[in-house]
Amino acid sequence: MKYFVFKVMAEEAGYIEKLPNGSPTDWKFHEGISLAKDFPVGGEVSFSKNYPDNRNLYDFQPNIMSNLLVSGRARKLIESLGVTNAEWLPVAIKDHQGKVVGPDYAFLNLLGAEDAIDMERSEYEMDSLEKDQIGNIDALALDTSAIRPDAKMFRCTKERRLILIREDVHAAFEQAGLTGFKVYEAEGWDGLEL
Questions:
Q1: Using CA atoms, how far apart are residues 180 and 173, in angstroms rounded to an integer?
Q2: How far is CA 33 from CA 96, 108, 118, 145, 191, in A?
Q3: CA atoms of 79 and 53, how far apart (whole Å)
């Protein structure tokens, strides 16, 4: 089974710079913990006024927080694939004028994490602040035997901001024509996002 590093990327996207008012602190969105009880009902996010010409909506919407902000179409597909660790935090996306342009979006909060990174074979530097987390990857090596067979889209225990998807999930995303993301083969990935 192959795995891919999953990154949100899109051109001229309506860029989101803030979480909805009343949201949990930003760092909590990268911990793999449930946020549903603390997330505001009826939350809204808006395109950044710093990028007035960027207005495009994608299935995975770029945002400064590096969270997975997912369209209703992508959510249905992910649910149909049986991704069991998905927690959905619904939001509406507004354009620069405050008009709702994406009524059915949600932050996808992936719960838990997998011991997917082979710490012996990978080349990396640990984070200076979060001592148990990798700060920089130069060459990623996976320990696929440590990944649960039903793990399809997940965080890595030693780098919780790193999202991996299984090859069948990637194929389903491609076949459905989902937009706003790029993948890199995980084994040997050099940490660059080109």
A1: 11
A2: 31, 12, 23, 24, 25
A3: 33
- Is the Cα dihedral 131, 136, 142, 147 positive or negative? positive
Nearest to 122 by CA among 104, 143, 103: 143
Q: pLDDT tens across 133-166, in order?
A: 999 999 999 999 999 999 999 999 999 999 999 9
Residue 37 CB partners (closer than 8 Å, separation 6+): none
pTM: 0.95
On whether residue 3 sits in a domain, the answer given is no
Element (H, E) at 99: none
Structural domain count of the chain: 1
Angle at 123 (CA atoms; ends 121, 127), nearest 5 degrees = 125
CA dihedral 183, 163, 129, 61 (to 10 degrees): 70
Closest of 151, 152, 161, 153 to residue 28, by C-alpha: 161
Domain that holds residue 105: 12-110
CA distance 100 to 46: 9
- Could you give the CA distance from residue 174 to residue 189 in angstroms, rounded to a whole number? 20
